[in-house]
Each structure stands twice: as structure tokens, then as C-alpha cells.
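Deviations from the work plan: none for this task. Representative record:
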Amino acid sequence: MLDVDIRKRLGTFVLDVAFRGPERGVTALFGPSGSGKSSVVNGLAGLMRPDDGHVRVGTETFFDAPAGIDVAQHRRRVGYVFQDARLFPHLRVRDNLLYGFRRSPRAERRIDLDAVVGMLGIGHLLDRRPQALSGGERQRVALGRALLAQPRLLLLDEPLAALDAGRKAEILPYIERLRDDVQLPIVYVSHSVEEVARLADHVVVLDHGHVAAEGEVTQTMARLDLFPPDSPYEAGAVVPVHVLDHDENDGLTRLGFDGGVLIVPRFPTPEGTHLRVRIIARDVMLSLVRPIGVSALNILPAVVGDLRLGGDCYADVQISVGGTRLVSRITRRSAAHLQLAPGRAVFAVVKSVAIDGRPVEWSRNIDRAPK
Amino acid sequence: MLSETETQALLLSLRISAAAVAGSLPLALICALALARGRFPGKLLLDGLVHLPLVLPPVVVGYLLLVSLGTRAPVGAWLLQTFGIRLVFNWTGAAVAAAVVTFPFQVRAMRLALDAIDPGLEAAARSLGAPRLDVFCSITLPLMLPGIVGGAVTAFAASLGEFGAIITFVSNVPGETQTLPLAIYSAIQTPGNEAAAARLAALSIGLALGGLVLAELAARRARSFLGR
């Protein structure tokens, strides 16, 4: 269990953040720049000393103001992966990887060089110097270095922010593997909805130094209040799905979810794979009757849950399709016209091509998929 | 090619320069660390003191050394009585004079190297479980190596050419304090010794040039080692 409750005054900025994260799996710290993500991370790593509160990871207490505990940075063993990989330029990849390992207590070494090299696919890089690596390779080595220090907590501070889309796609599967294979709490800091949707189990949304929302990822990301039309983020829902089958003739894939079936462009993943897709609110249309003669392949019976009218022309509608929550962004005029209200039965229309063809592997452990 | 006294002057110069650099390097490192990383009252004063020999006439440095470390000066007398160390008219005194004059070269080079180190690397090392001293030895020191080597080579080359401070402090004693520049000076002062002066001057130029080339090569090697 990750148990954080810290308060800190930094000039006019007041940080007051409390949340809990799972013992195993990814807790995402999500929010725009200036929301206090970095301060929380620094508090966890020991780079910043809070004025009050506590930080506990599992059975270890890193910080406890009332008890006067403040464990030194190098004794916390927080595997910190920075946005810029921060590999030591004078050491070869192998010595970079082993830097923390050699300083870890012998009795607590659970993961060795071979395991990390295999997991991250960096065997061919061991004798190189960091300068000879690509951005993606550097970040993989940085991940491995942090893991080999036998951390109690893995802290990934926007590890993909400095990479281009191609490199991001290269690294994400490795982080997913890490999440699934490593018995560690992972804190993943990001301002990218996509990364959070793909990786996180638990989300803590920060805003102006406070926790704006906290909870399981699919529940939290579907909340209407967090992503208003003027927010920098695209509102949408994160839907756990599994691949039912592929239609090779038409190049389509059928995805099963709690509430029905989605037809989407051909996914590269094999049948039976559990993954998450993100359905953007603007891509979901609502209809009172089952539409006929439309091109959209996904017509899902739904019930209106929450409704949120913006001050401008927008209306955000949360709908339930079976046990799954989707979000639809329509105009206020349409909402009035359809007389939308909680409990009203509607049909959600989702264009197949609107769903991102680069799927997100949910987990190889089916038991971790939401019930 | 060289006469015995000329060879003696050359070897003495090398010995004095080596001692000057080796002796002042640890102190220069401490000063560079204090100036680059420290926050304390009087930092500006220390900065000024360290760089003073760069702008003071070397004769003044020699004079100050004489009035502080001479056998009848307080510190000098104490050194003589307690440890039996006599710097005046001695090669060690020449090394002290050369060290003081070339001290700024070392501090400056080290400080620039320190400033160029990304503090994020040290934070990363700490997060990986390294205590402060360990971080300094395993990360900071290797990363500032180009500065240390560059500063040391430059200070060595400059020590070879030091004249004013040495002649003022420890005088011009052949075989003891007569370094290359002092030998050149003596040769010029002695009628009929123009050939010797020319030889020694050529030697001096060669040494200085060699030192600079060596400093550049060392800096390049160190940079490629760090991948910059």
C-alpha cells in the first residue's frame, strides 16, 4: 500500500495532497503542469521535505512529521526514472545498470542483471556508452537501472515526455511488462490521458496542489467534472475490452466489453487479449431511436446517467452501456431537443474508425481486468 | 647539447613544477568545490583571494611570501623551529611560489568543470542508493576529470615559466632554485653567454608549447571519454 498525505507551502503555492495507491500496479499522478505533480514526486523521493504529513510505502515509513521521521534520499530506495534518462555519461550501459545494484543490500536483491536485460531487451547495448543510444534506448536503460537498485517503489516522472510518438510506442510495451511482472507499487506521473488510460490502475488527478479526483482508472476517466470542454484534455471514457475475433475480409476486429460488442478497425493483438480502448466523447453520438441506414457500425443501447451542461454550447452526457460508462459530448441544443435526463434510454452511436487502432494491452492476467 | 648546469636547471624546473601542481591540487579542488557549490559568508572574498595572483605582479607575490614565510617572518620562523622546514633559498620554496602563482589556473578549470555537471546526475545517483561522498567519488569527480587534468597541465606549464615570485622569494641559487627562466636571466646577464641563453629560451618555448598541446590533447581525450 502506498499511503501519501503531505502538506507543503511553496511561496504562494500550497500543496495539500493525500491519496493511497495499490501495493502492486500503477498509480497515475495526472494533471496539468503546475498542478503539483513534481512536488508530490519530490516528496516521495526525499528531494523535498513536506511541512507536515506522512509518506508510507508498504511497511516502510519514509516520512512522518509527527514522529520526526525523514529517511534520507539514498536510504529510501525509490527507483526514480526521470524525464531525461540521466544516464551517467562516463559509465558504459552495464555499469550504469549496476550502479544501484552494487549499492543495494545483498539480502534484498530480488532482481538481477539478466532478468532486467531480458525484460527490457537491452542485451545488445551493454557495452555501449550512453551517448551512443537513442532516446528510447536510454529510457529503457534508465528503467533497468532503477529496477536493479531493488527499489521499494518505482517512480516514473513523465518518462515518455521527451520522446517522439514513435519512441513512445517503442517504450510503452516495456513499461506494461514492468507493471505486470514486477511486484512493486509504481507511481507514474503524466499529463497524457492516453498514457494514463493505457498504463494506470489507479488515478490521482491533481489540480492546483490538491487532489481533484482519485479512483480506479475507468471510473475516474469517465467523470464529467474533470474534463470540461475548456480543459486542455479531451474528455472520453476508458473501456476495458477483450479481442473476440478478427474479420480478415473487411479488416475489422470485434471487441467484447461489459455491455456488448464494439466493431473497430483490425487490431494487431491476438484473440483473447485483454486491453483498454479510449472512446473520445466527441466521437459518441446519441439517438432516441435505433438509427437505421447509418454508416456507424456500433449502435449500443444505453441509459443516460449524469448530464452536465456547460456555460457554452456543449453538453456532456455520461451514459451506461451495460456495466460500462461512456461519455458523449453533444450540443446543449441537442440535449434539450432529445429531452435528455438521467434514466432516459438512448442509443449510443460510435463510429468504428474513431477508435484508436493502436490498442492498449490491458493485462495478461485476466483477474486484474475489472469485474 | 646542454651543459651540466643547463640540464640541472631543466630538471629542477620540472621537479618544482610537478611539486607545485601536486601540492596545490587538493587545495584547489577544495576551493573550487567551495566556490562552485558552497554558500557561506565571505565567498566573494575567497573568490578574490584565489584569483589575486592572476592580477598581482609576481614580484609582489614573492615579496608577500618572503615577509610571511621567510626565516625571520612569523610563519616561516614557526615552520623552521617546529618542523625544521626552511623554504627560503630552497627548491621547496620555489615550488610554493610557483603553486601560489598558478593556483588560479587550477581552481578556474575545476570550477568550470563543476559548473558544467548536470546536478540531475548527482540526484539520480543518490536515488540509486549512493550517499553523498560516494556520489562525489563515483559521479562528480570522474565528470570533472577533464577540468582537473586541463587545469593541472596548464598550471604545470605556467609553473615552468614562473620567474618573478621565485627570484624574489627564494633567490637565484644554481642547482637549488635556479629554474629555466632564472638560468636564462643569468645567461643574459653574463657576457659571452648568448648561445646558452638562446638554447635555454628555445627549450623553454618547446616546453611551453608541448605543455599546451598536452593540455589540449588531455582535454579532448577526457571529453570523448565523457562523450561530449
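Residues 4-37 of chain B form the longest helix (34 residues).
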